[in-house]
């Protein structure tokens, strides 16, 4: 069970969300005493947008809480748009290539969730990648593969449709392989302009997703689990949703990849 | 709060105690869901005796549970005497030099506990080291320093007296510095022949220490906390004790560094 | 340009070949002042056979010369059969999964050389793997892939034929992709019984391979480049050869994967 | 023999000096084929000034050339003042705490050189630190110690006098210990405003120091060794000099710690 946080809005130092004591991603992931799940000590990563179209990327396999570099970077770097992730591996190797976020060109992506029986369907899923994206696969996680498939299926044009197609592919391959068709998927991703998040599962247990305004409404934070002690007023995003944060604010839409009708967009607070 | 396990007896593969699923040091340190303390993800180490007088030493700053090398080593290496430790730092830097066990010559040492206000008395304690042992200080932990002081104070001749003197020095420096005089100290150490363990604190909260026979009585295991699911019948060692495991079996003695009379030895089970 | 050394014979401590000052693998790879190629600082690995059918494996991404763990392990572990490798990456990621040796079951493998234009033919080469071996691919190197292909093509039954088939596949895919057909391949591998080495290239520049008797003839060492200061009398193995070390001594055979006639075995020294 | 580069002037991306192919610090440290010394694979570090008084710090023990994080950071971070260092250890442990630059408050420092027989005089030199700076010692290098001593001896008020006093202390302790009195010291350091560099040795072999204008004169670069292929016109700074870069340009002064008369400042270029 990974944890992540993402931010879009007026530029803030990463540390406000990544490493501030008592109410930040790292602090929560370390002090898992009260948590239902084990601590998140299998690596971490941050992707942030600055002056260039492509994000910066810093990932390592140490526990986030013991990484002095991360602390210093989070204190120095100010950004209007960033993703941060702490990993709790459920068996995969601990290597930088398997740490979130993943970056391709100007896109960044991170994920909490899983594909049931992934090892059984990994190969046919990889076969759906064009040569270009196949070459871009550096690790072995289901998360990176879903990201590459979304790029394959038109992430640049229609993010919701692209991830819907990636999820449908996984389910189709599960069915073909006789594996239980189960996906849980709570993810955040960005092209450097908008910040997107999806909360979805084929069963009733979609990993949680929350949003909160920050900086007096000049920014928004999206998190997989709310920070316990923060002042932020967390709003739970319902399962089957896709949230989009732009300069114009936050909007939400249904995300139901298994339904053929076009997914409709409805503005939200 | 660190965790450790030590073994002496008929040679066994390290994995039996270090990494076996469900009832080993690593497994317990990872799944801290039910534990009162945070998980132990700030490094680990093993010291084992083989053909040479000096032990082998393998330490790293990754969480033990994600280290493939450790898994392979624990599966290959068989030893009649070894120490294993997983670290939960309470603020110190995560570096290999700060990981237990510490090794000097044929001696190995590992520790769970703390000296209150250590940063205030670290310098005068280091001043008590001879040049030889001062040069041997590679890290910054109180644990390594207590070990070096014990070497300074005659560990080769009288282990109980040596650690008693190190503890008295720490308390004297605490008093001099006006720091609260508090030490908690549950440690295991070996010279390659005997395996020793001490459970001691100046207050009522000495970190726990347990022993259990293994291999049908051909070996003994000492642990800071019992493995939850193991078959082993754990016996709690009372605070203020020093336990010695030799070819002749296990003996126990009072360990009361603040009392001037000679500490008496009493055979035990 | 990687460097490696392998040993088979009477059990010796790994340090005799791996880390002894002045005449060992690590020493040579560090002091590359006189060498034609850059130093080997992109990770290292050792695989050694002990009591179990499967070898132990220790790999890390640090330069070998600065790894205290490696020094200690090489000093403690004694083995009749082991492989050691230091890596100089030519562009690939530095991760443990890309460090040699690679291990599958009881087989170990390490390599110096390259496939020209590998990125262009990586995908069709991976497609030749059965699901079982596809799942066993953890890294992204050409070396690991050649090893998995050899397993696919019958390494258990006929090592020479298996690697010949893997090399032919690579050349066929190069031709199909319009990439220059060039392989340089100097590798060592073992099943825990015999130690094999191949020196081969499609051009005139097969990476070097040398052998030398050790321990008064009770063991043999194979190296990619001779240690400069060692007493050992190095014998150069000609390109297009496969060497086999067993309890019965060393034998050599032609290795010419592009010729259809059976490769013939000729006893040597 | 370490290598370093420092920059002050109009803000530039770190990559221009740190990681650009063909003419940057990392590139030069990797391709040491032509160099007189071994490659610099024992860690690296960057310290850069941004919006805060204290610099950001990123250090790791991997070879700089294989660190994807460094490449990404150097590409994203733009700074008017930064220090970058690649390390070639001459025996000390490879740990982050021993990697340059060192940072204390708003000061940063990095160094190429050595104190002869440092292990013999390390203890009395450490004894000259006040408790405050003694506590700030995290590693074991002579470089960090000279930096802390300079802080002790008034770095905030008079950088030249502070380092002169630190060097005199080292020489005095060498004399007292009967060790050969030899220091070689080419260092760069900054308080976030000015960038300083010193080139000094007690013998004729002061490690080199070069400067070059950059960005059409809007910035200056100081390096321990010139980049081979760069367009920059390198100017060698003579031994026994201290260079200061401020908004007003570059000035140079004699640096002769063993002479009692005040060191005089002479404007340059």
TrEMBL record, chains A, B, C, D:
PROSITE patterns with a match to the protein in the record: GATASE_TYPE_2
Keyword terms, alphabetized: Glutamine amidotransferase, Transferase
Protein name: Glutamine amidotransferase
Domain Glutamine amidotransferase type-2, first and last residues per copy: 2-248
Example of a GO MF term: transferase activity
Transferase listed as a keyword: yes
């Amino acid at each position: 069970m990974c944890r992540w946080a993402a931010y879009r809005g007026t530029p803030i130092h990463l540390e406000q969300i990544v490493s501030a004591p008592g109410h930040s991603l790292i602090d929560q992931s370390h002090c898992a005493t009260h948590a239902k799940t084990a601590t998140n000590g299998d690596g971490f990563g941050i992707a942030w947008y600055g002056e260039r179209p492509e994000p910066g990327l810093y990932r390592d396999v140490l526990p986030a809480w013991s990484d002095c570099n991360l602390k210093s970077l989070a204190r120095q770097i100010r950004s209007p748009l960033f993703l941060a992730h702490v990993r709790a591996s459920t068996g995969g190797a601990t290597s930088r290539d398997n740490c979130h976020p993943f970056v391709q060109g100007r896109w960044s992506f991170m994920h909490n969730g899983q594909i049931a029986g992934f090892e059984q369907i990994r190969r046919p899923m990889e076969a759906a990648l064009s040569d270009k994206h196949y070459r871009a696969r550096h690790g072995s996680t289901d998360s990176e593969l879903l990201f590459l498939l979304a790029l394959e299926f038109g992430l640049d044009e229609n993010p919701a449709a692209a991830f819907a197609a990636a999820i449908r592919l996984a389910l189709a391959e599960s069915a073909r392989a006789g594996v239980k068709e189960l996906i849980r998927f709570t993810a955040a991703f960005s092209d450097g302009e908008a910040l997107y998040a999806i909360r979805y599962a084929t069963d009733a247990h979609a990993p949680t997703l929350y949003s909160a305004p920050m900086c007096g409404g000049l920014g928004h934070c999206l998190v997989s689990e709310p920070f316990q002690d923060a002042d932020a007023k967390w709003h739970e995003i319902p399962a089957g949703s896709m949230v989009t944060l732009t300069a114009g604010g936050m909007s939400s839409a249904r995300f139901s990849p298994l339904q053929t009708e076009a997914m409709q967009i409805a503005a939200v607070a």
